[in-house]
Structures
1.
Amino acid sequence: MAPRALSDLIALGEGFTTEFKQSLSSDLGREICAFANATGGVILIGVDDTGTVVGVDDHNRLKSQIQSMARTADPPVSVEVESQGGVLSVAVPEQHGKPYSFRGRFFIREGANCQQLSRDEIREFFFEEGLIRFDETPCNAFDPHVEITTTRWLEFARRAGIDSGLDAMTVLENLHLAKGSKVTHAGAWLLADDVTRFTIPASVTCAVFRGSSKTHILDRREFKGNLYAIYVEVMGYLQANLNSELIPHALGRDERLELPETALREAVVNAIAHRDYRSTANVHVYIYRDRVEIVTPGGLPAGMREEELGSKSVPRNPLLFSMLYRMNLVEQIGSGIRRIHHSCREHGVAKPTFQVSPDWLTVTFPRQQSAPTPHVTPHVTPHVGRLIAVVQGEMSRAEIMEALGLADRRHFRTIYLQPGINAGLIEMTLPDKPRSRAQHYRLTNLGGQVRDSQEQAEDA
């Protein structure tokens, strides 16, 4: 270290990456361990707490003692010791074998101090560093003898490409989804009928807003089956609430969603696969007039920086992700963001932005705000298509349900009515009193145009 660099370092004072020591003491091993468990740092021996250089003697002997202390850590810590005048500089580079302990105890750098970790802090540290994978830990609340019914096993086996005739627990052990009689969290999430019974925040919340803010909410749904079912339901929700373009060709016409489905699928599966399931928050999918946001709790996993998005893959839940890959929800591990960008480019839309914080990762897909062309209509699902086909004039909910042959009010509202309203095809006669007993529903002008278009297609 050059004299000027040393004086500049001392002038900055002690902090997260710098420690002053007047002389070599027995606690130096703890300091080395704490820096090794953080991002590295420098210990200056021969500088007192005020930043005054007091110096130390016999540097060769001290260097040998320092290296011996560093080797005593478990695992051994690599340090670089050099002399600068009367000061010994002990540089602890960022280490890659975390966690490190010294004499059986774990230490971490907090501000300008070295702190011993408690049992709970050690466990949290292991999770944060990716040394314990939550998806691989046993889910004690999941009783395989009760939860793995014949129906659920057949469904899981079909999705995972497994012979359903094989013994369930043997298969789950071979897939590392079970350890002995315990099913892991990844296994529980993929086999549950309601994932929130085992991990409360594992559901996904979707919402549609009228404008560009959360002031006026049009619809909100929470999906909480197993993770595969949640993925399918979220994609269905996006398809039902985004616009689609009708593209005519010689054999008829095709529908194309305003945002590329491949990109949306990658973003949704990444949110489900890579989120931090220890967080108390869940994944949110927000549909605004000008954008779609997919918000994932947990930020980036340990070992990954923001600038590495799209070029490096560090799965937070590798067991879960490998199963989603086996179920063909992702095509190639580590290619998700590249595929999102490629799909948006091929689709002719702006690529999404990624906003990263320590606790969240938000993917934002801009929606086109230009006036619709004559061929642009809201996406019409088969259910909404049936709905607009039966609405004549102003009809009550009961009249529409009777015309459709439906009895379940909730099913009618969530699958038929609300998507039709969100798409601008159906409107309320009393919009200011949505729960009024006198409420009726009718087609909008756009709804009438879409129905006419459907009838013409059927006649053709």
Note: The chain is about 35% helix and 20% strand.
2.
Amino acid sequence: MSGKPPINVQDGFFYVLRKDNTLVEVTLLSERKKIGRIRRFDKYAVVLESEGREEMIYKHAIASVSPVPGGAPAPTPVRPPAV
């Protein structure tokens, strides 16, 4: 064994979606769909911002997460230069 920690596919996937502010569709096991942007995530849950509010969704309730086609990242706000 090389002593390297195992690769966690979820962390890399969620990190890129969060960093790029990508619009995603989360399909739950109940077949409900939620569209929003990932704000935070950890080992057990994802915080999705949707319709101006944040909602925590436990990962064990998620069937799939996919980027929304044509759901380009939100523009980054431009701050005026400091005076």
Note: The chain has one domain: 9-67.
